[in-house]
Amino acid sequence: MNHAGETVIGIIGGSGLYDIEGLHEKSWQRIHSPWGEASDELLFGRIGGVRCVFLPRHGRGHRLSPTHLNYRANIDVLKRAGCTDIISLSAVGSLKEELRPGHFVIVDQFIDRSFAREKSFFGKGCVAHVAMADPVCPRLGDALERAARGLGLPLTRGGTYLVMEGPQFSTRAESELYRSWGCSVIGMTNMPEAKLAREAELCYATVAMVTDYDVWHTEHADVTVEAVLKVLADNAAKARALIGAVVPLLAGKREPCRAGCDRALETAIVTAPERRDPRLMARLDAVAGRVLARA
Questions:
Q1: Quick one: what percent of the chain has pLDDT higher than 70?
Q2: Does 3.40.50.1580 match the CATH number of domain 8-292?
């Protein structure tokens, strides 16, 4: 865990992104978690002197489906590795005409329609309710926008990411429903990832990388794996450039998050100290150690 006030950037790579170029002092290391096995080993290194920790969300070789990811272990190992901030890169379908394949969206909201996943570190033995009204850290969003515009990437700041369970793609009726809700993009992985990052008091932001128009667009072919893979390769190259540009913008001494992401548990735990399950407390050592140590 990070006790020195150092900024450490965690990077979660989505489909098509299984490594990060430009890292110095690279090493893959296995971090063990009481929540089970993470998707893969972590890739440690530095960009411009800033410590970075990369996790391929689906594992190298894309071994894990969105439903079968161990989201809790993934966030836990990043926290144990000392991360203070998480940048999530995610392949998505577009639900808006103007968000064409190859476009990047720095989302600011989520709608969670997943249903087969563990969504919290807390529960029986220790109950906590963190605020999720604004699930994305604005400081990270600002840095990502600045870096992306500096690279000339096609970019939209702001939008809602609809998280579906998958692994199947949408029906046409579902796609039209989500469009009627005003959603910008659709994907399968950023929930409960964002919720767990908030519980772990980590600043979190998503760059959603459009690969297709889902199935609603009658003038474009329905989404297929083959079509998605063609765009993924180009998006991955842009994503690597974006990471190389944004990390130096976040360098320096770690300051308190102005949005309070790093203090999300301050008043969230409602179970009385004497009623907390010691076994669950032991598993929460990395995620909630800052507040549990005061109990």
A1: 95
A2: yes
